[in-house]
Amino acid sequence: MRVQLATQASLTMAELKIFGQPLTTPDIPIAPSTLLGQIKSNSEVTLSWSDNSNNEDGFRIERKTESGQYSQIAQLAANTLAFADEGLQASTTYTYRVYAYNSSGSSAYSNEISVQTPAVVSLTNLSLGKPVTQSSTAYGGVPERAIDNNTNGRWSGSSISHTKSDLYAYWQIDLQNIYNINNIEIWNRIDACCIARMSNFHVFVSDVPFSSVNLNTTLSQSGVWNTFTAAYPNLGINLNVNRTGRYARIQLSGTGELNIAEVKIFGNASTSAGATSLKTYSEYSKLDDYLSTETSEKGRIETELKIYPNPSPGEVYIEINLEEKAKGSVSIYNILGVEQKKFSVNEFQAGNNLFTWDGNSQNGSVSAEGIYIVKVVVNDKVYLRKIYKMAAN
């Protein structure tokens, strides 16, 4: 600070007071944590993390591809908790980390998370030639007409299925195996007299047989995917499913005649890569047969293994009680037999051994809603239990 005359003269001052506040520098923010990645498609990954600071100016996300070097891909505002990374390559491993920053500097990095985008899969219409049923048949509109690969919506084209006026009229298909279902196309009858008949209908998808033809029972059946459409399709409708399934049903929510021009269920017809020795249960008549057959090969003791809560929208606890130390392992598989999670354990302790599954796969991505198998090996004994992972609220 200087006070200076503009010309040559003597400068005299009684007092100089400068008012203000000391300039403070904020602390460096605390590092974010619990970085998670969810695979949305073969070209998109969604990241989420915990914000542990209250003084960041924002977050920066870094990514590396395969074994390459990290580079920044995004700078986000303060208090941001998620980011969608789009435009990725299929069949590629990406590793992410995130840090907070402010005017004082940058936090430490969060944990790293690696995800591998799925391969590009050619989708197949899985419906063709599969067994179909419906609640009743009227005017010769057999259920097979809805899978004749003909989307003609005119009755004169002889390609439309037709039920009688039934309470909760339905059409149903058995794909005869569990597939990764991508989407379902449903083509409506378009004759002016009847186009509105396909209103207020549900579409169900399940890995296991439907326990009832009653609508309300099916709505409450565990493990069944469901979507509701109120307005009738003018021509057709495309529904994104993105889950496993063997059985599909289209069902009216009230009394009426159900007319369908065509149903196309698209998915991957090939066997999933990376399957382990744990077989898929489609070879058995029902899941309970599969479990009892697999475990009876080496025996099991019911009281030694507890799994709870089941079903669960969040964490699942696997409790193993033993009288003495034992060698073993704990793994979780999806319904296709692909290992989702393997816990790091070589030896169980005598007494209670507790493991927690957070619902994520080995690479940190969130596992989809559906049925999973817990496999516990204790010495020469194998124990299998089915669990149902619900969608998070």
How would you portray this structure in words?
By secondary structure, this protein is mainly β. The protein has three domains: 33-116, Immunoglobulin-like (Sandwich), CATH 2.60.40.10; 124-268, Sandwich (Jelly Rolls); 281-389, Immunoglobulin-like (Sandwich). The protein is built from two helices and 26 strands. The chain has helices spanning 215-219, 287-296, and strands at 33-41, 44-50, 58-65, 71-77, 82-86, 93-102, 105-106, 113-116, 124-125, 132-134, 161-162, 166-167, 170-188, 201-206, 225-229, 236-252, 255-256, 259-268, 305-308, 316-322, 326-334, 339-342, 347-348, 351-357, 370-378, 381-389. Strands 9, 10, 11, 13, 14, 15, 16 and 18 form an eight-stranded antiparallel sheet that branches. Strands 3, 4, 6, 7 and 8 form a five-stranded antiparallel sheet that branches. A hairpin with a 4-residue loop joins β21 (326-334) and β22 (339-342). The protein starts with 32 loop residues before the first strand and ends with a strand.
